[in-house]
User: Fold this.
Amino acid sequence: METVIKNRVKTEVKSGTFRKLGFSALETVEIVQPMNVLLANYHIHYQKMKNFHWNVTGKDFFELHALFEERYREAAERIDELAERIRVFGQTPVSTLTEYLEMAEITEVTAEFRSDQMVEETKSDIQTLLCLMVEVADAAINRGDAGTVHMMNKAIGKMEKTHWMLTAWSKADQPVFS
Ligand SMILES: [Fe+2]
Assistant:
């Protein structure tokens, strides 16, 4: 697939025929590629949040069961926004589980986690997603793509707040001056 894209970019850039939203084929690929990587990672994260929502046990069950549902619902919204933004560029979002598993840095986990491990895993995923969002925003900023930058800025702000809340939750049972 990458070779096909490369050849297409070469042809279109060479002939000067490609313009989509004012971006060249090359600029489009440079913006869309990190978006597809983010999309793949989000999908693995989404499924992990479902896994945790279904399989969490313990005294925190009600709290965490609801939290993980909130997380997968938010992930589903981001996934849809990202895929549709890629379509706005006339490109095809990666859409198969095989591709997601191949492309994603975030990995699947079993259902055997304790509740505190689930929270740590969620925080770690969020850190990865934040780094990838910054990469998308950088690619968009460098090419003057204000629409994608705006979308990423909103998502980054929300995600950072979630990370802070999960960090506060993990520290709840520790002494203040530990
Ligand atoms: Fe449910």
Observations:
- The pocket of fe (ii) ion is lined by residues 53, 69 (CB under 6 Å).
